[in-house]
Write a structure and sequence with these properties.
The protein has eight helices and eight strands; from the N terminus they run E-H-E-H-E-H-E-H-E-E-H-E-H-E-H-H. The protein has an eight-stranded parallel sheet with strand order 1-8-7-6-5-4-3-2. The radius of gyration is 16 Å and the shape is globular. The structure holds D-xylitol-5-phosphate and zinc ion. D-xylitol-5-phosphate binds next to strand 2, strand 8 and helix 7.
Length: 221
Amino acid sequence: MRNYVIAPSILSADFKNLGKDVETVAEAGAKYLHIDVMDGMFVPSISFGMPVIKSIRPASDIIFDVHMMVEEPGRYVEDMKKVGADILTVHQEACCHLDRTLNQIKSLGMKAGVALNPATPVETLEWVLDSVDMVLIMTVNPGFGGQKFIPYTLEKIRKLRGILEARGLDVDIEVDGGISAGNVSEVAKAGANVFVAGSGVFAGDAAENVRTFRKIFEGLK
Ligand code: DX5
Ligand code: ZN
């Protein structure tokens, strides 16, 4: 049985009450907190970085799932460990030396994730699949919250789950972008098990929305 996880993305939270929002989703049973770091280069927007992550770390012991949408994220691996990242995900497209960066992450005791933009084939990960704990399939083009789920990414999730199963690898598949209570079951059936939701959690009653996702996961078991 797959372990299903909801990972609320704080990009859609209320930044003036960030600590409170973190507590709210953790208390409602979210296991991961998805933290989107953007540099204005790899993606058009700039979000936040180490000081913000450091300041919310004491709010909860929830797992910090940090998504690096930055060029050459290898430059920040140590900093991210210091401010409390538990899982560090880097983009395949942003790393000149992906193997080295993934090993750096693991050597510091964090879980290593690798992310793929919608247009990047899953086959590009052939040689690093043994070294990762999680693959993040972007289901929108990264950079902004509140975008529409891209349907062809379902096929990528199926393909990747098939490759992982054929190789006997127990790797999480995380999806990010346009995930809602309305499509999460279909995406789970394709093979994903970690679901990022920004607007799907923080638009409206965040605690209630987390509980709704968890109820849907119960139905999948
Ligand atoms: C987008 C970010 C996402 C974003 C998702 O580039 O990586 O994590 O917060 O937002 P929603 O769930 O609203 O599509
Ligand atoms: Zn993200």
